[in-house]
C-alpha cells in the first residue's frame, strides 16, 4: 500500500469526537474511515448539508444535564447551530467552517498558550485548521529531539469566545475535541520506535504497510519531501 493510505492529498482517517457540556463528557464516538463530518443539533441529523456525503454527528440533547440554567443556555446555542459545523479533510489539511448562526471557535489544545493557532471559524466557507505537512515537520523535529510534541488535536468551542485565557475550557457550555486517529497513531509510533501500542488497529496496519521496510523517520522525511514537491511542483 502506498502513501495515500495515510494523510496526503487523499486524507482519510478515523476521527474520534468527544463532546463536553461544561467539562462533562456527554458523547464519545468514532467516525470510521472518513474525510470529515458535520456537527449538528440533536434534532438535525439527515438535514440538507453544505457537504453532502459527510456523516452527521448529532450533539446530545440537554436532557442529560441536571442544571436547568445550564440546560437553557446550551439549548439556545444548539438551536442556532443548524445547518451545522463541518470539519473536512482535503488537500493535505483539515478545514473547518460553520453554517449556522452559532459562532464557533477552534484551537489545537484545551489549554492554548498565548499566540498559539486558533480563532473563529469562518461562516459559510472553510479555513485550514491543521496542515498535515506542518504536522509531519513537527513530528520529525520531535523524533530528532529538536522540539516538543506536535499538535494534532482540534478543540472547538460553540457560542463563546475561544481561546479564552481567563476562563478554562471546562467552564464553556459546549466544547468538542476532534482527534484524527491516523495522526495520533503516527505520534504514538514515534514514541515506540516506529511501532504503535494499538496492536491490530486498522490505521496502524495501513501505516505499517506504507513504511515498506523504512524507519518511521525515513518514511516521514520522504513523505514530507513528496508533499513539498506537490505544493511547489
TrEMBL record:
Ranges of biased composition (kind: Pro residues): 45-57
Chain intervals for the UniProt region annotation (Disordered): 38-57
One biological process term in Gene Ontology: immune system process
SUPFAM superfamilies named in the record: SMAD/FHA domain
Domain of life (superkingdom): Eukaryota
Gene Ontology cellular-component terms listed: nucleus
Residue ranges of domain Interferon regulatory factor-3 in the record: 12-191
Alphabetized InterPro entries for the sequence: Interferon_reg_factor-3 (IPR019471), SMAD-like_dom_sf (IPR017855), SMAD_FHA_dom_sf (IPR008984)
Gene Ontology molecular functions: DNA-binding transcription factor activity, RNA polymerase II-specific; RNA polymerase II cis-regulatory region sequence-specific DNA binding
Protein name: Interferon regulatory factor-3 domain-containing protein
Amino acid at each position: 500500500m502506498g502513501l495515500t493510505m495515510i494523510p496526503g492529498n487523499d486524507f482519510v482517517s478515523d476521527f474520534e469526537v468527544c463532546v463536553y457540556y461544561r467539562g462533562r463528557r456527554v458523547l464519545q464516538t468514532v467516525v470510521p474511515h472518513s474525510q470529515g463530518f458535520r456537527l449538528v443539533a440533536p434534532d438535525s441529523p439527515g438535514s440538507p448539508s453544505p457537504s453532502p456525503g459527510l456523516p452527521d454527528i448529532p450533539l446530545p440533547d440537554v436532557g442529560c444535564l441536571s442544571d436547568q440554567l445550564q440546560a437553557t443556555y446550551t439549548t439556545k446555542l444548539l438551536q442556532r447551530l443548524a445547518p451545522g459545523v463541518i470539519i473536512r479533510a482535503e488537500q493535505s489539511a483539515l478545514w473547518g467552517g460553520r453554517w449556522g448562526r452559532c459562532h464557533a471557535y477552534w484551537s489545537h489544545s484545551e489549554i492554548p498558550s498565548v499566540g498559539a493557532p486558533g480563532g473563529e471559524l469562518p461562516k459559510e466557507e472553510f479555513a485550514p485548521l491543521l496542515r498535515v505537512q506542518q504536522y509531519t515537520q513537527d513530528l520529525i523535529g520531535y523524533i530528532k529531539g529538536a522540539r516538543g510534541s506536535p499538535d494534532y488535536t482540534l478543540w472547538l468551542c460553540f457560542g463563546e469566545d475561544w481561546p479564552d485565557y481567563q476562563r478554562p475550557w471546562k467552564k464553556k457550555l459546549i466544547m468538542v475535541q476532534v482527534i484524527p486517529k491516523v495522526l495520533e497513531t503516527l505520534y504514538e509510533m514515534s514514541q515506540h520506535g516506529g511501532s504503535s501500542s494499538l496492536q491490530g488497529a486498522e490505521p496502524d496496519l495501513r501505516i505499517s504497510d506504507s513504511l515498506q521496510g523504512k524507519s518511521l523517520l525515513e518514511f516521514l522525511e520522504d513523505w514530507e519531501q513528496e508533499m513539498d514537491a506537490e505544493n511547489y511542483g
